[in-house]
Structure formats: C-alpha cells, structure tokens
Amino acid sequence: MKCYICAKQGVDSEAVAICIVCGMGLCLGHAFKEALEVKDIIDWGFGEEKIVYPHTLPRFICAECKLAIEQRKRKPKSE
Ligand SMILES: [Zn+2]
Ligand SMILES: [Zn+2]
Q1: Which domain holds residue 64?
Q2: Residue 47: inside a domain
Q3: Domain count, the chain
C-alpha cells in the first residue's frame, strides 16, 4: 500500500501504517502514533480497584482523523 497523502501530492511513498479510523495508508511522516491506556476496574467485593497498566496500546492515526477526534476533547470556550 502507498501513503495516501503522499500520493495526492504526487510522491510515491510506501505506507508503514494504516489509520485506525479511516483506513488510509500512511508513511512514517504522515502517521501519528498515539498511546491508549489499558485500564481495568476490578470489584473485589469490598471495594473497587482501578488499575492502569504500564503497557499502552499503540494506535496509528492520520492528521485528519486526529484533528477530528481532538476537537471533541476541547472544552468549549468561555468567551
Ligand atoms: Zn506520506
Ligand atoms: Zn484517518
């Protein structure tokens, strides 16, 4: 697979990753790697234990999808 963004610019780059959201092929320069936390909440009967594991899940994403997801995380402006 080729990098979609590079291909649109007329550059021939081999894709090294695929965007998990849109499925676009991405080269090293156009792929963003995010780390998803792996969490568990275990109910022991006498209380809950929240665990965040040391190893994260890698997630490859393109610039467009990253932007679309990040816009939701932002708090509304107070102005
Ligand atoms: Zn590229
Ligand atoms: Zn994408």
Answers
A1: 4-73
A2: yes
A3: 1
Beta-carbon neighbours within 5 Å of ion ligand 2: 19, 21-22, 24, 62, 65
**What tokens appear for 37 in the block?**
């936390």
Q: What's the gap in Å between 51 CA and the centre of ligand 2?
A: 30
Which-ligand-closest: CA of 61? 2
Q: How confident is the model over 6-52, as pLDDT tens digits? A: 999 999 999 999 999 999 999 999 999 999 999 999 999 999 999 99
| Residue 18 domain-assigned (yes or no) | yes
